[in-house]
Design goal:
The chain is about 10% helix and about 45% strand. The protein is mainly beta and about 190 residues long. It binds fructose -6-phosphate and manganese (II) ion.
Length: about 190
């Protein structure tokens, strides 16, 4: 059996020869924010978040685990915080751990009945995301929000449900504080 070189998670950065990086810019988030017109006015090449991930086995391997670090920039589109796309897992019952490395935010969780809740993210907070829960993170602070994730290698991503239906509420800044608002409440 060949031994593998260990990856490094050092000074909050995932390092190693096999780390895969993915960046998401404002131009990639068309239609995700309530104030789409405001998103269009912003710099399209502005980085919103990037993910460094370690995939020690092929995607789809039953029993395998993936590890990733997401760095979500601070920022707003209208009254809405910069956030990740959010997704259910393709194998919907697959769970995941998130934990906060630095910064402040909210983890937004929504089940298939579109019931929604939030969990506060702060350095050291550990979040168990049960299966059948769409998950998205919003950066509610003024600095970088960085969080780790560990999920099953066969979980996959269902982005299309959120792309077409959205979450049932959005995390908005109201009187300086993060509040979940439905689109109906925003329209008032
Ligand atoms: C993996 C996972 C995270 C996210 C990352 C970016 O299952 O939940 O690694 O993929 O935080 O968010 P999305 O994928 O929603 O763009
Ligand atoms: Mn996930």
């Amino acid at each position: 059996m060949n031994s593998q070189l260990p990856q490094l998670f050092k000074e909050n950065i995932l390092q190693g020869t096999t780390i895969v990086q993915k960046q998401t810019y404002l131009k990639d988030l068309k239609g995700f924010f309530y104030h789409e017109a405001e998103r269009e006015l912003l710099l399209q090449n502005q980085l919103v978040y990037e993910v460094d991930a370690y995939f020690p086995v092929s995607a789809g391997t039953e029993g395998g685990l993936f590890f990733g670090v997401t760095r979500l920039q601070p920022g707003m589109v209208g009254n809405e915080y910069f956030m990740t796309r959010g997704h259910f897992h393709a194998i919907a019952n697959r769970a995941e751990y998130y934990w906060t490395i630095e910064g402040h935010g909210q983890l937004i969780l929504m089940n298939h009945e579109r019931e929604i809740c939030i969990e506060e993210m702060q350095p050291g907070s550990l979040h168990y995301i049960p299966g059948h829960m769409a998950h998205r993170v919003a950066n509610t602070g003024n600095s970088l929000l960085s969080f780790g994730a560990c999920w099953p290698a066969d979980a996959g991503y269902d982005y299309t449900t959120i792309e077409s239906e959205g979450f049932s509420a959005r995390l908005c800044k109201v009187n300086g504080l993060p509040v979940l608002l439905t689109d109906e409440q925003q329209a008032l």
